[in-house]
């Protein structure tokens, strides 16, 4: 939640000067904001510093109650940095420190640099392969060592722990696109984090194994329940 009286906004000098233009509209205002956010969980109480841009929109809507068009002004605050960055999802206590560190960095980059965030998620996948002892290199027919691409490492993990190939490749594709284009959509990254959370739940926390065991136990013919 917003820390009381911490929100401050400031209009840029060039935005102020543009108001003398005859075509100026409130939507043209360029402002920046800073504020502090406090976790509503009293046990936590973490304080997050946030800054970003302010935008304004004006639209008209017919209101039947007054029988005429009414103008509405809306103000939006878009974060460009959050420190410390709030976790997009709770990290498993079973996740190795190195893996958790990559995800925390991805959480931070989500607000600062979306493309770098996608790349960091891809880096996380590489280190997750290490966690499951999927080699980074192999030996070719000539006896020469070569680097295994992430795609091939995913294939090898699928042989070891089947059922996640499509999810891994979807995340890999987003990382590749971000590397080549230098951009990634916020909504896409949120989807990626949701997939990562599911992967961790299944592969690290063993949720699917537990579900399979419960299913098998409850599926025994003539069993006592």
Relative strand content: 15-25%
Tell me roughly what share of residues is in helical segments: 40-55%
Class by alpha and beta content: alpha+beta
Overall mean pLDDT score?
A: 91
Low-confidence stretches: none
Question: Radius of gyration in whole Å, from Cα?
Answer: 25 Å
Give the termini distance in whole angstroms. 46 Å
Counted by DSSP, the helix tally is: 7
Name the shape in a single word.
extended
Please render the helix and strand layout as text.
Elements: E1 8-11, H1 13-17, E2 31-38, E3 47-63, E4 68-83, H2 97-112, H3 114-131, E5 137-139, E6 145-147, H4 150-160, H5 165-181, H6 186-204, H7 207-218
Antiparallel strand pairs: 1-2, 2-3, 3-4, 5-6
Helix pairs in contact: 2-3, 3-5, 3-6, 4-5, 5-6
Structure description:
The structure is a single chain. The chain is of the alpha+beta class and 225 residues long. The protein has seven helices and six strands; from the N terminus they run E-H-E-E-E-H-H-E-E-H-H-H-H. The strands form two sheets. The protein has a four-stranded antiparallel beta sheet. A two-stranded antiparallel ribbon has the order 5-6. Helix 5 runs antiparallel to helix 6. The mean pLDDT is 91.
């Amino acid at each position: 939640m917003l820390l009381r009286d911490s929100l401050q906004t400031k209009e840029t000098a060039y935005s102020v000067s543009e108001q003398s233009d005859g075509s100026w509209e409130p939507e043209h205002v360029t402002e920046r904001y800073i504020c502090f956010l406090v976790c509503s969980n009293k046990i936590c109480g973490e304080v997050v510093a946030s800054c970003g841009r302010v935008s304004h929109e004006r639209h008209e809507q017919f209101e039947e109650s007054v029988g005429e068009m009414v103008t509405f002004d809306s103000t939006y605050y878009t974060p460009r940095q959050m420190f410390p960055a709030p976790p997009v999802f709770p990290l498993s206590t079973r996740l190795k420190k190195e893996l958790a560190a990559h995800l925390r960095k991805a959480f931070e980059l989500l607000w600062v640099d979306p493309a770098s965030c996608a790349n960091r998620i891809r880096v996380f996948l590489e280190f997750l392969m290490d966690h499951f002892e999927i080699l980074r290199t192999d030996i070719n027919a000539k006896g020469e060592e070569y680097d295994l691409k992430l795609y091939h490492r995913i294939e090898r993990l699928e042989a070891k722990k089947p059922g996640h190939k499509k999810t891994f490749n979807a995340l890999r594709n987003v990382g590749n696109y971000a590397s080549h284009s230098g951009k990634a959509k916020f909504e896409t990254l949120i989807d990626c984090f949701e997939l990562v959370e599911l992967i961790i739940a299944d592969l690290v926390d063993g949720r699917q194994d537990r579900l399979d065991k419960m299913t098998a136990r409850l599926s025994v013919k003539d069993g006592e329940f």
